[in-house]
């Protein structure tokens, strides 16, 4: 057994949130202390604060391939997604495996606009033929498909999707919340009109995100204001800016873009090791998401264990200080598998036993070896209990 102390957390839930980078905290500190001024004021102390916001816009624009004046700050990924859909307010096509920030909203907007959910293949890739047919036969003005899925890590063919949307005169929005820091993002190259991000997914602070909105040929933004009030952010999203958050997100994305390749290689190597260690020692395990590994986020591993309850496995792993996430959502009546696992048709005998492991640049080989050993041990225990009950 690896000599990781039983008290040290092995954190493998980086798709949920990431640790704040020390350099990011350093960059934020002045704006939490002496440079506290309201950027809308006009005395001397506000100059550096306004400048810090402009720097963050440049850092973000350069990381995702847009212009600084196309970056609008939000409270996170959920708000950015909501703004893209509600701000454009028209008939919309989405994929069946979008985050709830898109899917729940689309369900609520159905009385006012048409929404079509396009199915995905068994590896989670959007059905491009179905997408093209829907665009041809319906009056859809917006397509929203996530760059990478938060559960199974599937990376979508954004260029093909945006090409089809534009061909039919629709705009293209992508939720890139899980992609940033793991795969290259370039709005211009990928034909993305609007892009959502969230800083806490790439070692920035929580409560800050952005919607990047490309100006159209007429020089106008294609969507309306989201929060009405003062004139901050061109009146498009009023309210005093979260300056420490904005500075932190700017720094975090600069670091993420600078170290992208190195971090992605590190994550993929350890993710593959985790998979090998588990699959070689535990029978009846199923990988969810695409093969080859390169079609998936480098930090994602989603596995289903036959005859195991994912929530139980998660709780048991927690006793060993291994933090992971299950592929199901508890509600008061039942534990139901996620809409993503259902959409990719994970077989019944596997679907409840799903666990998502998500790594980061900080994950170590020692942690991976320790986690794999604990997973093997816990699955064996849970299956043993189940079979013992069965044959009692
Ligand atoms: N979109 C995706 C794909 C996500 O994974 C998440 C968070 O898990 C969100 C949106 C929401 O982001 P936030 O937590 O910043 O609101």
Distinctive features:
alpha/beta, 4-stranded antiparallel beta sheet, 41% helix, binds pyridoxal-5'-phosphate
Task: Give an account of the 3D structure.
It is a single chain. The chain is of the alpha/beta class and 392 residues long. It contains 13 helices and 15 strands. A hairpin with a 4-residue loop joins strand 13 (328-330) and strand 14. The longest helix has 26 residues, at 365-390. The mean pLDDT is 94. Pyridoxal-5'-phosphate binds at residues 76-78, 81, 99, 101, 146, 150, 175, 177-178, 198, 209.
Q: What's the SSE blueprint?
A:
Blueprint (H helix, E strand, L loop, with lengths): L9 E2 L10 H11 L13 H19 L6 E4 L2 H12 L3 E4 L4 H10 L5 E4 L9 H10 L4 E3 L13 H10 L3 E5 L11 H4 L3 E5 L10 E5 L29 H16 L1 H22 L3 E4 L11 E6 L4 H10 L2 E2 L1 E2 L1 E3 L4 E3 L1 H5 L4 H4 L2 E5 L6 H26 L2
Parallel strand pairs: 1-11, 3-4, 3-5, 5-6, 6-7
Antiparallel strand pairs: 2-8, 7-8, 9-10, 10-15, 12-15, 13-14
Pyridoxal-5'-phosphate binds next to helix 3.
